[in-house]
Amino acid sequence: MNKTELIASVAEKSGISKKDAEKAVAAVIDTIVETVAAGDKIQIVGFGTFEQRTRNARTGCDPRTGKSIEIPASKVPAFKAGRQFKETVNK
After folding, report:
1. What is the pLDDT of residues 4-30, one digit of tens each?
2. Of 3.40.50.720, 4.10.520.10, 3.50.50.60, 3.30.1310.10, which CATH number belongs to 39-91?
3. Which of 1, 11, 47, 60 could be bridged to 5 by S-S, CB 3.0 to 4.6 A?
4. How wide is the angle at C-alpha 57 spanned by C-alphas 54 and 61, nearest 5°?
């Protein structure tokens, strides 16, 4: 499912127009991105948790040359599915 299909599904299930559903989906996505980028966590009970995690600096290998390179520390977005979500997927 892509974003357009998601918007259509939200519009159908909620009984609102596709235009309103698009605004709602965009607002949810923007809020999640802004909150995680700020270093905060979003917990949606039954669905999961969006958070920011830190990757430590490490040594890697350049596949073109085979030489070792230093990969700097970075922050990455992460999602951990909630128990109810996992149970639904595993049925």
Report:
1. 999 999 999 999 999 999 999 999 999
2. 4.10.520.10
3. 1
4. 130
